[in-house]
User: Fold this.
Amino acid sequence: MNWKDFFDRLGMNGTRWQWRMMKWERSLRGILQGNSSGGNWSAAKVLIAINLLLFGLMVVQGIGGGLGLSTLLKPDSYLMVHSGAQYWPLVFAEGEWWRCITYAFAHGGLIHLGFNMMVLYQIGPMIEEEIGTIRFVTLYILTALTATIAGLAWQSLYVKQWIIVVGASGSIFGLIGFAISYFHRVGGTMAHNYRNFMLKWAAIAFVFGLLVGADNAGHLGGAIGGVLFGLVLPLGIRGRQTMRFFFNGLGAICILLTAVSLLMMIGSWIF
Assistant:
């Protein structure tokens, strides 16, 4: 397609937009070939932006509903459920399966959000650069699912009551678990330094989880999912080409499920 003529007809600077479109097309081709997005943005940063946006919306709704600024530090249970928290009775009774994903984009206060986003900012781009954008997104969403399934098992078998769960920490433990097993397989000094760095983050995140009374069953489920992903994912640059079409398809499914889940959550506010 002749992007220059297209944008010229819209009264825009066709040459400038043509170069931008060519750059975006190269980036997309690279992503589909198993590479990271490159440039000034990454999937990790997009995930952080989505988390910040949804937290901001929750705070605005809380304040608008008369809950005051306490929403910023400690939103109440109803508001968290309204904002996509995992609550299994609603999944089973109302068919709100989308909570299995949206809970990973909701947070129980500014401190909770800040810690999770700090960890994601620290470790996300490094893992994305190593395995490519599509596989990074796949890992993030799949471990959100393994985390909430582990939480379901724990609540139903041991706690004997349903608990409201929010937070990206299941996926973050998934990233950490993945990095530990993957970089251990890669071998070498640098890879083992990465592995040891992740082990430190795992310890810090676990202690933080204990202090705030987090869903440690979910953390374990996310970590196990990540470790398994790291044990089976092909290694290195050549490994990115292995089963490329399979992972592109799986990544597309994960992105679609996430988008649909978030839209259904927003739709639940309206209908």
Summary: The CA atoms of residues 180 and 196 lie 7 Å apart. The radius of gyration is 20 Å. The mean pLDDT is 86.
